[in-house]
Amino acid sequence: MRDHVLFQMWEPFRQSLIKGHLFYFDQAQKRLISQFEDIEAESEKASEEWLERSSDYFDPDRHDPGDFYEAANEAGIEFYSLLSEMRDQTCLSVVAGMFHEWDKQLRDWLVREIQHWHQGDMAAEKVWSANFEQITKLLESIGWTIVDTEYFRVIDACRLVVNVYKHGKGNSLNDLKQKYPKYLRDPLLLSGEYSQNIDIRDHNHLNVSKDQLQGFSDAILEFWRAVPENIYASQVTDVPDWFGKALKKDQTDQRQRNSK
Fold it and tell me: Domain span at residue 123?
């Protein structure tokens, strides 16, 4: 009996996904993240500009020059802090856009491939509404072992980072603390100390470095490169219940329509 293909990654389509991701990441670096490359110098300039604006109010007979320089320094520190926060938020928004696009493209590919051999809307709706763990189990059930790969672990970390960025406290924050605490900045580092107590870190300490951002991008690229060219029916084991029930519901509905 001839084994038939259930899922196929057409090579030109694979390359289009890779090129689209590379374009997004490259342009995000150039147009957004690069704007924060020298915030130290910008903070010093903000301090100097504060002094310049305040010079008209300086009276050597009544004012201590040291007070003005201290206030200017504080203005520079405040500017640096605000700009650092904006840089972190910009980086996280780039991560979120990158992850959500990958997630939508994966589900869209799955649905289109399913529609080649299955009729009905329920299976497609379930793929779009399934959570990350459910999609992962579906991929595993069709013979693509990804859970133990490094690129999948990085994508999983990316997912949790995006969820914490979006929702703050919750299950994703707890999972991030347990599985990937390196994406939560140690709040004591600014004071020159270090704490191994992960409990003191929360969503306010979420941070993605330049290298970690690159790591997320590389993991998504590796994922698309690793998608099997062909996944055959013989490779499928027991599909998750939610997907199997959706297939049966579509089949039942189709038989009922045909019998009318």
Answer: 11-259
